[in-house]
Design a protein that fits this description.
By secondary structure, this protein is mainly alpha-helical. 61% of the residues lie in helices and 3% in strands. The longest helix is centred in the N-terminal third of the chain and has 17 residues, at 16-32.
């Protein structure tokens, strides 16, 4: 990763401000470098992909590979038992196929289809099969890696910890919307190596005229007041 722009918002309905910030950042980057490819990478949350489809209709799409692998591992554990040798072996085989083979998702779907036929009452397997079928077009990991594109959202997960959790979730802390957002905004500037530039913009806008009074006399110190009273 060459650089990262990190931003965070206090809890808000539908993440509207965060989405607007993301669109503004992407627009400014592509205005300067229209040749850069775009990859939309997120977990399977429906709101994420609804936003991407409407606001960023171009670029490749990818479900975070490690989330996909977690779903696969849970389904296999439901079939073969949690932590068993067969679960580990099948997980490694199917995970590698998903990662390293063109249309590896097809092989995973075939395996899950077979498991559902063997365990028709196991909801975990049925849900995982539906998950892979729904998101198959976002699981072209082999092609993305061939192009040097990311397939995991580890940088985002790390930002959740370093930008938010380490500062905002210490023992006994409570935050209001305004105070919490002030902290998050400044930490976002710092971790994006933008603090000096951002602070210069803020300082240029928020200025207050100060009137200096004439004939200002300082209050006497305690030592001076004590000696005078004696």
């Amino acid at each position: 990763m060459i650089s990262a722009i990190r931003m965070a918002r206090m809890p808000e309905a539908n993440k509207l401000d965060l989405k607007a910030m993301l669109i503004d950042e992407l627009g400014s980057i592509l205005a300067a470098r229209p040749d850069l490819p775009v990859v939309k990478l997120a977990d399977e949350a429906h709101d994420n992909w609804t936003f991407f489809d409407h606001a960023i209709p171009f670029g490749a799409e990818a479900i975070d590979f490690f989330h996909a692998a977690e779903h696969l591992g849970a389904a296999l554990a439901a079939a073969y038992g949690d932590g068993t040798r067969q679960t580990r072996r099948r997980f490694e085989d199917l995970r590698d196929a998903l990662l390293d083979k063109p249309d590896g998702a097809k092989q995973v779907i075939q395996a899950l289809t077979y498991l559902r036929s063997k365990h028709p009452r196991t909801k975990r397997i049925a849900d995982t099969l539906e998950y892979f079928r729904t998101n198959r077009h976002r699981m072209n990991y082999f092609e993305l890696r061939e192009m040097g594109m990311p397939i995991g959202s580890g940088a985002v997960e790390a930002a959740c910890k370093t930008l938010v959790a380490q500062r905002m979730k210490q023992s006994g802390m409570r935050w209001g919307m305004l105070g919490g957002q002030a902290i998050l905004t400044i930490r976002g500037w710092t971790q994006s190596e933008r603090f000096d530039h951002a602070w210069a913009i803020v300082a240029a806008k928020y200025r207050v005229e100060v009137t200096v009074l004439d004939n200002v006399r300082a209050f006497p110190s305690r030592e001076t007041a004590r000696s005078t009273s004696v």
